[in-house]
Amino acid sequence: MFQRIKPILFLVLTLLLGFLLGVISSRYLVEQKIKSYRNQERGKGFIRLHHDILQLTPEQQEAVDPVLTKYFEKLTAHRKAFRGIMDSMHTELVPLLTEEQKTRVEEIRKRTKQGGRRGGRPPFLPF
Q: Is the pTM of this model over 0.70?
């Protein structure tokens, strides 16, 4: 009796193990792809994102790369200016808030500095 159950049990366990490994590896690969797109501080990630979305040919990539580089630099400068403006606003607002409101503001600032909203920030998709 045990001789018949042993191969079936082995097959079921093998299938379950394969399923679990597939789920874990799939999630890991998706997270790595998102991290590479999220890494917008480097121009290569910004350019690669657009290459992937637009599915450019090598010739198009050569023509498009200077344009993407130019606008990446503009976006980076804008992002830095935006952060400065937000810091100034924060400095003026905090003295006017209650302790509970200050705590909420600090939690939000921590979350945005870590690069995420609830569940993390989605990859930048311009189109």
A: no
